[in-house]
Amino acid sequence: MTSEPANTLGFESVIGQPQATRLLSRAMETGRIAPAYLLVGPSGIGKGLTASCFLRCLLSPTLSRETLARVKERIEHRNHPDLLWVEPTYQHQGKLISTKEAREKGVQRKAPPRIRIEQVREIARFLGRPALESDRSLVVIDGAESMAESAANALLKTLEEPGQATIIAIATSEAALLPTIVSRCTRIPFYRLAPDAMARVLGDRGYGHILQDATIMGLAQGSPGAAIASFKQLQSCPPELLTALHELPQNPCELLTLGKTISSDLDSPAQLWLIEYLQHYFWKHMRSSHILHHLEKARRALLSYVQPRLVWEVTLLAIGLPE
Question: Has this prediction a pTM greater than 0.85?
Answer without folding.
Answer: yes
